[in-house]
Design brief:
Blueprint: H1 2-8, H2 10-20, E1 26-27, H3 33-38, E2 40-41, E3 44-45, E4 48-49, E5 57-61, E6 84-88, E7 92-93, E8 99-100, E9 104-105, E10 111-112, E11 115-117, H4 125-140, E12 146-150, E13 161-163, H5 167-179, H6 196-215, H7 300-307, H8 325-330, H9 345-353, H10 368-386, E14 430-432, H11 449-455, H12 457-463, H13 465-486, H14 488-492, H15 499-510, H16 512-527, H17 531-534, H18 540-543
Parallel strand pairs: 2-6, 11-14
Antiparallel strand pairs: 1-12, 3-4, 5-6, 7-8, 9-10, 12-13
Helix pairs in contact: 1-2, 5-6, 6-10, 13-16
Bound molecules: 2-acetamido-2-deoxy-beta-D-glucopyranose (5 copies).
Amino acid sequence: MWLSFQGFCLVLLLCLMSLRDVEAQFPRACTTPEVLQTRMCCPLWNGSPCGFSSGRGVCAPHPARDLPKPVDYRVNWPRVFYDSVCTCWGNYDGFDCGQCLPGWRGPQCLQRYHVERKEITDLTDSERETFLSNLHQAKQSPSSRYMILTSNDTTVDGNYAFHNTSVYDLYVWMHYYSAKSYAGSESNAAHRGPAFLFWHRMFLLFIEREIRELTGNQDFYIPYWDWTRTNHCNICTNKYFGGVGQDGRIDSASLFRKWKTICPFQESLGIICIHTDASAPAYLIRNPGKDPIYNTLPTTGDVEDTMATPLFDTPPFDKTSRNSFRNKLEGFEMPDDSRHLNASMHNLVHRYLNGTMSLVPTAANDPIFMLHHSFIDKLLERWLQDHGEATYPDSDQVPPAQRAQAYMAPFLPLRTNNYYWGRDTNSLGYSYREHSLPRSGAGHNVTRHAEEFLKEPSAGGVQWQWPVLGVFSVVLLCVSVGAAIKCKGKRQQTQDAPTEEKESEFDYRSNSLYAVWAKERNGTIDKSSSTHVASCGAHPHDAAPRSLSEGRGDGVDSAVNVEIDL
Ligand SMILES: *[C@@H]1O[C@H](CO)[C@@H](O)[C@H](O)[C@H]1NC(C)=O
Ligand SMILES: *[C@@H]1O[C@H](CO)[C@@H](O)[C@H](O)[C@H]1NC(C)=O
Ligand SMILES: *[C@@H]1O[C@H](CO)[C@@H](O)[C@H](O)[C@H]1NC(C)=O
Ligand SMILES: *[C@@H]1O[C@H](CO)[C@@H](O)[C@H](O)[C@H]1NC(C)=O
Ligand SMILES: *[C@@H]1O[C@H](CO)[C@@H](O)[C@H](O)[C@H]1NC(C)=O
């Protein structure tokens, strides 16, 4: 029925097929029309809402419901969807209070529980195989408890739909939903601000618990990848996450070869995952070290410089903050000895991998993402241990979604951005085991590729391209140029956008993922009669420009929002 309906309307076909593969963190029970109408997300546990009659929690209104309506409905989570949600008591947790808080287990959640996250290369063969196969199972298993949201315009209340997803893709979607800048703003819920580190801590705890429940492997944990121990992607091998070929595809002997990404392309502001086309899957791409601007991993020196920063975060609490531990660790503020780089620490590792990992907000499609963030979380923990006196910033300059008392989107039950401050990893049921090999006393002996590159800029600048991309890239480039010409008229609309946005747009349109997608898309559209809806980014704003200027209407809204500067 469903499929034959798609056959009638190619526009709908595009949208529906694209929606099929994507997902959001909404409890399945809270996505029915009835629940959305009553605005109460209080699923039953053991027969009563929020397990109330079992003493687990209560359905209660939350403060965000009283906040004014923002331009983008994702701000003030979960205001636009629900007035009441579960508040869990004791050690109970979960959207229906049916789970235990991290660090607790048992029927009453009264037993302590602890895992040690190890460095990935310290895992035994059997630990590693179990870890990778648990991940693979999560990628393939439908999430029975959650659905994901897609939307073609997040400035219009009620303009969304829910879809089934796998457990792993739920996690990818959650990152997308909160990492994508809000319409009318340059900020998002999870990056470029003080919530960055805590949002990702919660995110890893969430997927860890989901995978434990799915696989029954209660010892599942996310190892970390200490990239200061290496000068290349030492886990980009078939033993770990797959070797990579010249075209950036994962080696055919790796189980990650067949992993398809969801929401794989950068979409315009206000769009959440409507461009996934099930008939044109985008696979994982990695080209570690191939971008001459970002061909080095951060060093121990960079880490120590970051760790020595005394203030957690500083005004204006965004990517321009100076002397901010958060901004150094995130990688917008350069450590002392890497001023020649345009990204450092967290951002640099994303950029270094040059592919799926370098495109925010879809980077979590690559399983290396969680190991990278596990290491970032380890550094956060070390800094917090050393700075017991620090506090979460309490300032009106903090972007609204990242203020101390705002709720982290899209998590249930609700958690404020400062919730994890003062809860160390031990209280959350985990700690980090140091690498089994101590560092040599002489310190760290990894050379920076970038320094070598800078000595011979002319050679390095030209040589990488052809060997890396090969004939494949010629085809993609042509497609890309074709798409660019086709879109020229529309792009002129964005000419008033800030320079940074335009540069990003250029990067975006010339990246190979986009080109493949544009080709597929143009192919489909040429066959359809509805070019207006779907061409050049399928931005509904293009067809019917609307003012979003209630917010910081500075032209950002009309620009294609690509956010590849992590
Ligand atoms: C956007 O989504 C809504 C429902 O979610 C739908 O009615 C509308 O047709 C869509 N618009 C476009 C341009 O796809
Ligand atoms: C989504 O999943 C639910 C439960 O797993 C199932 O009942 C439903 O048919 C699925 N819907 C679609 C469109 O596949
Ligand atoms: C990969 O590196 C190339 C070469 O510098 C760059 O043009 C491209 O934008 C990078 N791709 C991604 C996805 O970062
Ligand atoms: C790196 O940053 C410098 C200074 O901001 C800028 O001039 C240069 O164009 C940037 N390079 C790249 C490749 O983004
Ligand atoms: C660093 O490595 C180089 C070459 O591998 C070696 O010659 C040098 O002695 C090492 N330095 C330290 C401090 O270990």
